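Could you help me review a protein record that somebody else here produced? What it holds is a sequence and that sequence's fold in token form. I need someone to confirm that the token line plausibly describes how this chain folds. Take the sequence as given and treat only the tokens as open to question. This is what I was given:
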Amino acid sequence: MVDQDEVILLDFWPSMFGMRVRVALAEKQVKYEYREEDTFGKKSQLLLDSNPVHKKIPVLIHNGNPIAESLVILEYIDEVWNHAPLLLPPHPLHKARARFWSNYIDQKVFKAGMRTWTTKGNEQEVAKKEFIEILKVLEGELGEKPYFGGDEFGFVDVALITFYPWFHTFENLAKFSVENECPKLIAWAKRCITKPTVAASLSDPVKICERISGVARVHDFFYS
């Protein structure tokens, strides 16, 4: 199914939050115009007008109406283009669980992952340990299922898989291996990226690492 509405995505290519939206749009086969917002340059007037509260990407503009915050955008995409594949499960309990774990990812994985490479010495060692412990919690939730929601790729998978390209940066700058500590999670990630919609939507891990290695304004990369 191909949508004919006007859909614009304001995004920055390394953003794990922007990648979420790209994955969701690809899953739904929605055509859209991509507009790059380099966070180290001047923010466009369109971005400032579309997200005046946070002034951040990603922003989805659908027929002139802006929607901000990546998890909110994912739900919007799922509801507006409500054909298969559905990202959120139909059952209220399963839907609530998907929202819980997606929020956990934003609150825990994002913050701990950033600290692995923005700290030094003992603080960095503590950050790495915390990051791995958080991923192990997610491994426990995944269990033996192919995907977080069961047999089908869904909402929580979209929320988390876009952090996978950043693992290379975390590992290289903080000197540790996610796969050694969380092999099931990496196996899940590799399973996800066999999907063409996912593989085509994720940014190159090496390019991300090269781009941010000398970054001074770290927070500018972490838009939601």
